[in-house]
Write a structure and sequence with these properties.
- The chain contains 13 helices and 15 strands.
- The longest helix is centred in the N-terminal third of the chain and has 16 residues.
- The chain folds into 2 domains: about 230 residues, 3-Layer(aba) Sandwich (Rossmann fold); about 130 residues, 2,3-Dihydroxybiphenyl 1,2-Dioxygenase, domain 1 (Roll).
- The strands form 2 sheets. It has an 8-stranded mixed beta sheet. The protein has a 7-stranded parallel beta sheet with strand order 3-2-4-1-5-6-7, with helices on both faces.
- By secondary structure, it is of the alpha/beta class.
- Helix 2 runs antiparallel to helix 6.
- It binds guanosine-5'-triphosphate and magnesium ion.
- Magnesium ion (MG) binds next to helix 4 and helix 5.
């Protein structure tokens, strides 16, 4: 794993290796992310139907931003269901002239199946590139399914790229795209029908009255034309504020004096222990009782000099911790840190290969929180 220093130097090989580690879900990648400051670059999602000219637009944006001495990273995300290699190759060729530029870093990323595939890896890749100090991180995704929703959750702003003559496409993509577009671009404005497409978008926006409707711009990515106006619109666009979704309760940890004594009570209400084990390192006996999608974890100390024994001595039997499964632990840790929450240590890798981190009860309303990422 490359060290943090090489990442913030934006060393291409170090970035490449770190991104590969992220895609392979190597815990060391999360630990690297946890060590890096978040960075301040602008993350711009660029999405739209296949062939609208997203990559060409990214290429034109790179050229314009480089002319203004800005550094740019590009993450081209492609659903593997679609990727015969051709699409990624197309992106490469489209942006080829920038590969030798030290101020530009371009990475293609194939997702495995549904956009669930991009969720964690794309979030973490984006955070790595921003932490590396790029002024702009451009993320190209094809808006064919859930991608556009995902991209909205990781970008500071989303540009939806359409092209004239897509006819029904404008209607088809409307549902997902209308909510997430901060800026609409009708690309291929050199072709007939660009005005009509722009009017259709405006008409659709009119159906949802909003105080500040997104601007609708026209570009010719290949000329290039309209790029300066697009960059102006990006500068004027407020950054999205993200609401984080997707946590669930993995288990509830309860400290008991005796698992044997507690089990019948839980059995009476319908919870059976499916697994019992002793975790020597933690000095506890554990019984897991599945409860719907979640579990209750009974914890009994194996000796007086242990966390659970001390807990019971001080507070009596009772709720010891709540474990939440989160989609991106490093991101959660970063947000908590920025908020001043008290984290106990840094993300650790557990025996099962999962990543975990504890948040002090002082910061959570009195309950020890365990955050888990699988
Ligand atoms: N006439 C015209 N052609 C364009 C313009 N922008 C892109 N193209 C062409 O449209 C085709 C698709 O462009 P891409 O940039 O690969 O489109 P994309 O949206 O990235 O495509 P996917 O990544 O495959 O979804 C290419 O042949 C481009 O040369 C434009 O402004 N005008
Ligand atoms: Mg493309």
């Amino acid at each position: 794993m490359p060290d943090a220093g090489r990442i913030i130097e934006r060393n291409p090989r170090a970035l490449g290796r770190a991104l590969t580690a992220i895609e392979n879900r190597e815990p060391s990648a999360w630990e690297l992310l946890a060590r890096l400051a978040p960075g301040t670059g602008l993350v711009v999602g660029i999405t739209g139907p296949p062939g609208a000219g997203k990559s060409s637009l990214v290429d034109a944006l790179i050229a314009a931003l480089r002319a203004a001495s800005k550094t740019v990273a590009v993450l081209a995300v492609d659903p593997s269901s679609r990727a015969t290699g051709g699409a990624l190759l197309g992106d490469r060729i489209r942006m080829q002239r920038h590969y030798a530029d030290a101020g530009v870093f371009i990475r293609s990323m194939a997702t495995r199946g549904a956009l669930g595939g991009i969720a964690a890896a794309a979030h973490q890749s984006t955070r790595l590139l921003r932490a590396a100090g790029f002024d702009f991180v451009l993320i190209e995704t094809v808006g064919v399914g859930q991608d556009e929703i995902e991209i909205a959750s990781l970008a500071d702003m989303v540009i939806v790229v359409l092209a004239p003559g897509m006819g029904d496409d404008v209607q088809a993509i409307k549902a997902g795209m209308m909510e997430i577009a901060d800026i609409f671009v009708v690309n291929k404005a050199d072709l007939p029908g660009a005005e009509k497409t722009a009017r259709e978008i405006a008409a659709m926006l009119g159906l949802v009255p909003a105080a500040d409707n997104p601007p609708i711009l026209q570009t010719v990515a290949t000329a290039p034309k309209g790029i300066a106006e697009l960059i102006e619109a990006m500068a004027a666009c407020p950054r999205r504020r993200h609401t984080v979704v997707g946590a669930s309760i993995d288990h509830i940890g309860i400290a008991v004096k005796s698992i044997g004594a507690a089990l019948p009570i839980y059995a009476d209400v319908g919870l059976q222990a499916t697994g019992r084990e002793t975790v020597a390192a933690e000095k506890v006996h554990v019984a897991m009782l599945p409860a719907g999608a979640s579990r209750i974890e009974l914890l009994e100390a194996t000796e007086p000099e242990s966390t659970i024994a001390r807990f019971i001595e001080k507070r009596g039997e009772g709720l010891h911790h709540i474990a939440l499964k989160v989609p991106d632990l490093a991101a959660a840790a970063e947000r908590l840190k920025q908020r001043g929450a008290r984290l106990i240590g840094t993300p650790q890798t557990g025996a099962g290969g999962h990543l975990y981190l504890f948040v002090h009860p002082q910061s959570t309303g009195g309950v020890l929180l365990e955050l888990i990422q699988e």
